[in-house]
Amino acid sequence: MAPNNAHTALWPAPHASGAVDATVHVPGSKSVTNRALVLAALASEPGWLRRPLRSRDTLLMAAALRAMGVGIEETVSSSSSVAGGPDGTGEAWRVLPAGLLGPATVDVGNAGTVMRFLPPVAALADGPVRFDGDPRSYERPLHGVIDALRALGARIDDDGRGALPLTVHGSGALDGGPVEVDASSSSQFVSALLLSGPRFNQGVEVRHIGSTLPSMPHIRMTVDMLRSVGAQVDTPESGGEPNVWRVTPGALLGRDLTVEPDLSNAQPFLAAALVTGGKVLIPDWPARTTQPGDQLREIFTEMGGSCELTEYGLEFTGSGAIHGIDVDLSEVGELTPGIAAVAALADSPSTLRGVAHLRLHETDRLAALTKEINELGGDVTETADGLHIRPRPLHGGVFHTYDDHRMATAGAVIGLAVKDVRIENVATTAKTLPDFPDLWTGMLGN
Ligand SMILES: O=C(O)C1=C[C@@H](OP(=O)(O)O)[C@@H](O)[C@H](O)C1
Ligand SMILES: C=C(OP(=O)(O)O)C(=O)O
């Protein structure tokens, strides 16, 4: 077998010779695709996903559901009525729910959505489902899901660390009911329990008991998507108790859903407009969305750009100036690497707050950003819950990515402004955006 050099390969990040002026079609949202797959698999009738994201995280989700007996048929069409996009073209997946079955094996890779959303699904399967993944997946927090499922009646074998690997011994049904969870390390604990909640005998009432709760837009996304397939969900925002979400038991509808572009994956392209004083159009930017990436309109405007949302999409324009920012990113933690990259190129310091939980993401993102930006000559320090970034002239060098897709795209943003930045393992962007290198060079007109 040929040696796999992907991890050590260095990708010369293209340097921008002038202002970018491009239209970038960003593939579908990871978070929407993986929620839609789970909900479609739990439905009582077939459903469609149009323009799903095809990336490592979503293919792992599809493979896992297939391993438990769900049918997922992939179609690509240029003209027929089963096509993906509203214009009648693209990719569409037909999901055919079936009785969930073990024995099955699930590879979660390093996908938070797969490792957290699927153990509750496995508790509904008839038979054992074994979960395993990348070495990093063993370190990412899962205790909230494991402890809650046990409290709700599931049998789970793990090694006592509250983490992967583990086996869920599904018995075909789960009692459900009220449960307390400390989701301060990941909002995905709450989303995971809510997504399968309609299929638990008594539904589920999740009470978050931790001091902080990150990524609230992602919990809203879960609630919105549950409601759109017919689930009844009571939330703090709909007049319920603070920190309590209640899902009523009931059948889920099969839907026909077109997946929005991934706005967090739009981030490096918007950043390119900001950093080069150029212009980028992202077609199909939704007018209304629960995706956290929508907050980039405000954040990157404060950092020096301006934007307009039209019928064609989001047009983002850089002014040539990049300003530092003092911002709480707890709601939008996954945007931190890209914001840090822009902040390192700004005309004033930045403080990024509220993201201590990023230490347990794909890698320890606070440590990785600090080390890699500083090795290019930057001046970044970690705080208890974020980063201080004092811009300094940067120089070229190797930008290590630690198997983290968002480290790779952050390095590419810096490379636009700094010559001779080489990104280690740019292929790690395949987690959520396999087309990244081509989209990036395409944007630059190469
Ligand atoms: O539910 C989701 O789709 C996600 C929730 C967030 O996780 P955390 O709350 O663990 O940060 C986010 O960072 C992740 O990229 C996707
Ligand atoms: C934190 C992220 O992913 P995951 O879904 O694996 O948690 C991310 O995409 O930034």
TrEMBL record:
The active site is at E334 (proton acceptor). 3-phosphoshikimate binds at K30, S31, R35, S186, S187, Q188, S215, E334, H361. Keywords: Amino-acid biosynthesis, Aromatic amino acid biosynthesis, Cytoplasm, Transferase. It is found in: Cytoplasm. PROSITE patterns: EPSP_SYNTHASE_1, EPSP_SYNTHASE_2. The keyword Nuclease does not apply. Gene3D superfamilies: Enolpyruvate transferase domain. Phosphoenolpyruvate binds at K30, G112, R140, Q188, R365, R406, K431. Residues 17-438 form the Enolpyruvate transferase domain. One of its GO terms (biological process) is amino acid biosynthetic process. GO terms for molecular function: 3-phosphoshikimate 1-carboxyvinyltransferase activity. One of its GO terms (cellular component) is cytoplasm. It catalyses: 3-phosphoshikimate + phosphoenolpyruvate = 5-O-(1-carboxyvinyl)-3-phosphoshikimate + phosphate. InterPro entries: Enolpyruvate_Tfrase_dom (IPR001986), Enolpyruvate_Tfrase_sf (IPR036968), EPSP_synthase (IPR006264), EPSP_synthase_CS (IPR023193), RNA3'P_cycl/enolpyr_Trfase_a/b (IPR013792). Its main location: cytoplasm. Pathway: Metabolic intermediate biosynthesis; chorismate biosynthesis; chorismate from D-erythrose 4-phosphate and phosphoenolpyruvate: step 6/7. It comes from the Bacteria. Catalyzes the transfer of the enolpyruvyl moiety of phosphoenolpyruvate (PEP) to the 5-hydroxyl of shikimate-3-phosphate (S3P) to produce enolpyruvyl shikimate-3-phosphate and inorganic phosphate. Monomer. Belongs to the EPSP synthase family. This is 3-phosphoshikimate 1-carboxyvinyltransferase. It comes from Streptomyces phyllanthi. The lineage of its organism: Bacteria, Bacillati, Actinomycetota, Actinomycetes, Kitasatosporales.
